[in-house]
Amino acid sequence: MMVNVLEPAEQIFNQYRWLLFSIAYRMLGSATDAEDIVQEAFLRWLQADEEGVQSPRAYLSTVVVRLCIDQLRSARAQREVYVGPWLPEPMLTSQQQELGGGEEHVELAESLSFAFLVMLENLGALERAVFLLREVFDYDYADIAAIVGKSEANCRQILHRAQQRLGQRHTRYNVSYEDQERITAQFMRASTTGDMQGLLNLLTDDIVFTADGGGKVRAGLKPVYGRDKVARGTMSGLHLLLPGLQTRIEEVNGQPAIVGYLDGQLYGVILLDIEGDRVRAIYAVVNPDKLHFISSSR
């Protein structure tokens, strides 16, 4: 019987694979791109002189972060011609285990939420890197400085600037998973049964609805603001898809989400940002390019 024994270099790399993917996914907002970055890091690791690498974690983190910064900067021009709002690529929580991730501490789990990923879009590439490394992954300033090629004092300034830029967006709303699941189920039920008043009761007055169709699927080209407009838009949009649309609740990005199937095929994912017992933001990802990662696990 043949025994598959990993080479020492691969064994070392696999110890950090989930950390590297976690950093890249939060940096890029794309699980597909994060996998590509991690694979590139692996190839560079195989070519590296292991004896000259004092800390594999520091070396690999540096490779991944710098690759992500380069990609974000090149993606800026692409975002300018993107059709409609750009939203991150959702990921099934079950895929986390498949990729090597286990239970995460609270801050790391919160940073996987869709609202958190959307919030990061307000930061530039370098700000995002410093913010994530410090606030989410708890790297010390000396390591962050080495990773991004800046002084410790400069990194502290960058973090402060990022925190100011995020402002109130960085406020955490402590809503239990059970409450998220309950409100998500109520939202799905009201939306699919035509219960307009029930839907209105779930929304904050200043709610924002954002849909990402990427020009591939019919979706709003601008966010919709306000409870009445969002409720009417949700009802009319679902009415056009019914009766072929089937919905169920699945765990996406660590939270309950509404996953829709049209004629048996994955059509879209709706994620809710909940504050208290109301929905303050709705994110709908229907761009088929951003559903490939979820579809690949089916």
Question: Could you characterize what this model shows?
Answer:
The chain has 298 residues and is of the alpha+beta class. The protein has 2 domains: 8-170, Butyryl-CoA Dehydrogenase, subunit A, domain 3, CATH 1.20.140; 177-295, Roll (Nuclear Transport Factor 2, Chain: A). 53% of the residues lie in helices and 16% in strands. It has 13 helices and 6 strands. The chain has helices at 8-28, 31-47, 56-80, 93-98, 106-110, 114-120, 125-136, 141-148, 152-166, 177-193, 196-202, 227-241, 292-295; strands at 203-212, 224-225, 245-252, 255-262, 265-275, 278-285. The chain has a 6-stranded mixed beta sheet with strand order 2-1-6-5-4-3. The longest helix is centred in the first third of the chain and has 25 residues, at 56-80. Residues 1-5 have low confidence and may be disordered.
Quick synopsis:
This protein is 53% helix and 16% strand. With 298 residues, the chain is of the alpha+beta class.
Show the helix and strand layout.
Layout (H helix, E strand, L loop, with lengths): L7 H21 L2 H17 L8 H25 L12 H6 L7 H5 L3 H7 L4 H12 L4 H8 L3 H15 L10 H17 L2 H7 E10 L11 E2 L1 H15 L3 E8 L2 E8 L2 E11 L2 E8 L6 H4 L3
Helix pairs in contact: 1-2, 1-3, 2-3, 3-8, 7-9, 8-9, 10-11
Can you say what the CATH homologous superfamily of the largest domain is? Answer: PhyR, sigma-like (SL) domain
Domains (count):
2
- At the fold tier of CATH, the topology name of the largest domain is Butyryl-CoA Dehydrogenase, subunit A, domain 3
Taking Cα atoms only, what radius of gyration do you get, to the nearest Å?
20 Å
Low-confidence stretches: 1-5
Please give the share of residues in helix. 40-55%
Gross morphology: globular
Structural class: alpha+beta
Biggest β-sheet description? 6 strands, mixed
> Class of the largest domain in CATH?
Mainly Alpha
**Number of contiguous helices:** 13
CATH architecture of the largest domain: Up-down Bundle
Proportion of residues in extended strands: 15-25%
Number of strands: 6
Strand order of the largest sheet: 2-1-6-5-4-3
H/E topology pattern: HHHHHHHHHHHEEHEEEEH
Terminal CA distance: 31 Å
State mean pLDDT (0 to 100 scale). 88
